[in-house]
Amino acid sequence: MPLSGFAQQSLSAKDKDRLERLERLADAIEKVKVDRRQSTGDREVEGRRLSNNSELHMQFMAAAGTLAANGKDGLCAFPLQVSGYSSAINSAKGVSDRKSGADLQRATIVLQGLIGQPRPKARVELAPLNHGSAFPADQIARDRIHDLIRLFFPEAEIDGVQRFFEKEFEVRNETDEQLRVWAYGRTWDKSPSQTKGAAAGVASQEAGEDSGGFTWIWKPGTPSQVKPFEITVPAGKSRKFTDAEGGTQALAANRVLVWAESESGERWLDHERQSLWLVEPDPQDNGERTYHAKQVETYVYSIKPKPGPRVFTERTLELKNATSEQLTVHLRYRTNSAGAIAWQAADVTIAPEQSLRPRGPDGTQIRASQVLFAADGRHRRYTKHEREPLLLVDEKEGVRAYKADKIGSYLYTFETGAAGKAGDARITGARVPVSANGRTLAYVNRGEQYRVVDSDDEDIKIAVTVRGREYTGWVSRRNAEMGPPPAPAAPVAVRQTLRITAARAAVKVGSTVIGHVDRNKTYQVLEKKDGQARIEVNVEGTPRHVWLNLRDAKMVDSAEADAE
Fold first, then answer.
1. What residues are paired with 462 via a beta bridge?
2. CA separation for the pair 150, 155 (Å, rounded)
3. pLDDT at 108
4. Mean pLDDT of 471-483
């Protein structure tokens, strides 16, 4: 019965949509053509002529979509035309074998439970094909039909052996620690609305991924733009990723980006940026990354313990807030990322009397060789290491490195007495400017008192009223005093920077020259002694402290160097 005969029936919107998709499936079938050729060419081997050739041609013809007599099952029938040949020549044996064939068979797609069932079952009825080629024509025909079923009815369960492009992804934790694992999956978008170029899409699988009507996408989204999927895998256990947060459907993909971290800070980053393929190329399917099975298979990715001991140049960072108020920490850390040493930034908030291990943008614990940071609370501010770096790894024999089975951890505590407390500030200077964001809000005068909002070693933040509205801004400690006379502030280390002026300046460890640095490069001065400066350079991927003759450099302003 034609589909139009059911148009007036009382059907749900879901069933009507399926009937429309059945019609579109029938339209797409007649556009499918398959042409396969395989040839070794004529070869001369020790005076013998060898040759193997084969061709297969297949075409799906006009299809008709209809409902079965029971009004529940969908049917789509069409003629399938096939022809081909194969030949093998071996002149030494006097063999010349040639086969050919042609056939016309009826193919039928049965969608059991198309109407009224949440997940219809699909099967393909097709007699063996007589074609004469060396190609598996029966499976190729079924593969193309299955591709169309998936495209138009992604919710259908297909019966029998079929071609798959993806595998479910499972992680096995073979370590003795719990792991956090992150992943992005590259998967075929199976949306029913993706019918553009359907027939081309079926054929395009031979041309490789990301072409034709099949749309390949990253889940949960484009890496670096969307947070990855995350799971926790206990020691000695296995767990599959799901295709949505808190979902139950396993993530199926043809390749993944995956990385992991243990509770102690050990990392597995081999496939953080380089794809791990879950499906291997199939030589029987033109080298496509496919496989044949009755159902989707599972790829198990095993994470094994790291061998040790090893040399580390970084430590993981732990921050402890020993005060009674919440602190916001603005952190810059020097780390080895993707083989390059670079400064990165992160902001974290620490509750009173709590500790945390800050994490970078990829979700893993921050590890670094040195850090710069400032911390702000409601009544206090910490600036000691805003310009003076906190070194997390001690120097030994000119190298900041250590040997251990696992990466070490560095704990930094924000103590109660290390920052100024709120109260009242009394102005001691004449006509003192109050500044915020690089501009002057107002002027205050000697003897006036204002509420303190914040403070650091150099300035006090006060609340002032301008035209009936309260603003907050900074005044210099030289022109104000806060509560009782403050204890002398610890001197703030002034960072010194030098610029190389020699064409190629030698750098040494002891009396041995280990390398050279180029003109106009700038470096932070860690120490000066006897006409030399100690700086940090990267030697074969490892940070090293070396000595440079000051005759080969000049001191420059740190702000100028940062601007470059």
1. 452, 473
2. 8
3. 95
4. 84
Angle, helices 13-29/137-152, rounded to nearest 10 degrees: 140
Most confident of the ranges 254-263, 286-295, 450-459? 254-263
- Residue 52 CB contacts under 8 Å (≥ 6 apart), including other chains: 38, 39, 40, 86, 87, 88, 89
Average pLDDT, the chain: 83
Kind plus residue range of the DSSP H or E element containing 209: none
**Assign residue 531 a region: left if phi > 0, alpha if psi is -120 to 50, beta otherwise?**
left
Mean pLDDT of all residues in 150-157: 88
- Where helices occur in 43-123 by DSSP H, the ranges are none
Secondary structure of 140-155 as H, E, C letters:
HHHHHHHHHHHHHCCC
Q: Which of helix, strand or coil describes residue 313?
A: coil
Other Cβ atoms closer than 10 A to 283 = 8
Q: How far is CA 141 from CA 35, 58, 105, 322, in A?
A: 12, 8, 11, 70
Is the pLDDT higher at 310 or at 140? 140
Tokens 């006036």 belong to residue: 448
CA 390 to chain CA centroid, Å, is 30
Could you tell me which residues come within 8 angstroms of residue 471 by beta carbon, excluding any fewer than 6 positions away? 434, 436, 441, 442, 463, 464, 465
Which residues lie below 8 Å from residue 196, measured CB to CB, with a gap of 6+? 213
H helices present in 30-112, as ranges? none
Is the CA virtual torsion 206, 211, 213, 218 positive or negative?
Answer: positive
What gap in Å lies between CA 49 and CA 95, rounded to an integer? 10
Give dist(CA 495, CA 558) in Å, integer: 7
Nearest partner of 326 among 455, 414, 433, 216, judged by Cα:
414
Tokens of 334: 């020097």
Q: Is 132 helix (H, G, I), strand (E, B) or coil?
A: coil
Q: Is 436 exposed, middle or buried (0-12, 13-18, 19+ CB in 10 A)?
A: middle
Residue 564, number of CB atoms within 10 A of its CB:
8
Q: Between the CA atoms of 203, 208, 214 and 218, what dihedral angle is there, to the nearest 10 degrees?
A: 170
HEC secondary structure over 433-451: EEEECCEEEEEECCCCEEE
Q: Model pTM?
A: 0.58
Contact of 91 with 49, CB cutoff 8 Å: yes
